Amino acid sequence: MPRLLHLDSSADLDASVSRELTRLFVDTWRATGSDHTVIERDLHRSPLPHLPDAALHYAARLRTGTEWPDPAAEGLQAELIAELTGADAVVIGAPMYNWSMPSSLKAWIDYIHVLGTTVPFDTSDAPLAGKPAVIVSSRGNTYAPGSPGEGTDFVIPPLVQVLGTSLGMSVSVVTAELTLADRLTPLAPFADLAAESLAAARDAVRNLATSLAR
Ligand SMILES: Cc1cc2nc3c(=O)[nH]c(=O)nc-3n(C[C@H](O)[C@H](O)[C@H](O)COP(=O)(O)O)c2cc1C
Questions:
Q1: Angle at CA 86, nearest 5°, toward 212 and 35?
Q2: Are 188 and 203 in contact (CB under 8 A)?
Q3: Cα radius of gyration (the chain)
Q4: Whose C-alpha lies nearest to ligand 1, atom 29?
Q5: Who lines ligand 1 at CB under 6 A?
Q6: Where are the beta strands (DSSP E) in 30-131?
Q7: Three-state DSSP state, 197
Q8: Which of 18, 82, 121, 124 has the fewest beta carbons closer than 10 A?
Q9: CB contact set of 4 (below 8 Å; sequence gap of 6+)
Q10: Domains of the chain, with CATH numbers?
């Protein structure tokens, strides 16, 4: 029974581009078979508390003798990690907020990136190695090569670092740019590019969902 974990983090509940694209991924995934299930976690509607204790960054056996995190926080962390390890693939809506990811998504990362549990550390266990992760990032401006914004995207690189480099997941990235072209006058000349970017993102999402659901 192929299972998808679907995460959203946009604070826009009306016209979010990342939500539209992750929904398209989910719908495409579901359409590939009636046995294809989806676990939904909306990190904006139901925000996680910020990581309450640094000890949660380490597996229990790697903690010092004075580190005793709150069992409730440990339980939440275990639930989030089980959701991720139990999924066959994960799709993550990751809008750009002030050049970085929404704090709601960062909180999730802080819970699931754990030395000795999800991060191979003192053993060779790598429970997430090879698991597909699809990052769907939306941003108002452009960060394309040659643009003034080039090199200032601090959403995708840290997500790729954590999920791909550190956790060993198989990461794909879909980006929709210039989403504010219809809202901010200085970006209005880029409306055609924005439409092209969104169309390409929709195609990429459909293709990835179809191939990963097989
Ligand atoms: C709090 C906030 C901060 C933002 N910061 C940036 C930014 O630094 N760069 C940018 O290109 N767009 C920025 N935007 C625009 C969003 O990236 C854009 O609206 C994007 O489409 C949001 O994703 P969503 O449509 O899924 O909500 C910001 C929007 C908000 C609400």
A1: 55
A2: no
A3: 18
A4: 97
A5: 10, 12, 16-19, 95-99, 138-141, 179-180
A6: 37-42, 89-95
A7: helix
A8: 124
A9: 25, 26, 29, 36, 37, 38, 39, 87, 88, 89, 90, 91, 213
A10: 3-213 (3.40.50.360)
- Tell me the pLDDT tens digit for each residue of 41-63: 999 999 999 999 999 999 999 99
Do residues 4 and 24 touch, judged by C-beta distance below 8 A? no
Residue nearest to atom 4 of ligand 1 (CA): 97
pLDDT in tens, 169-205: 999 999 999 999 999 999 999 999 999 999 999 999 9
Ligand 1 midpoint to CA 184 (Å): 12
- Locus of tokens 């880029």: 190
**Planar angle of CA 36, 37, 43, nearest 5 degrees:** 140
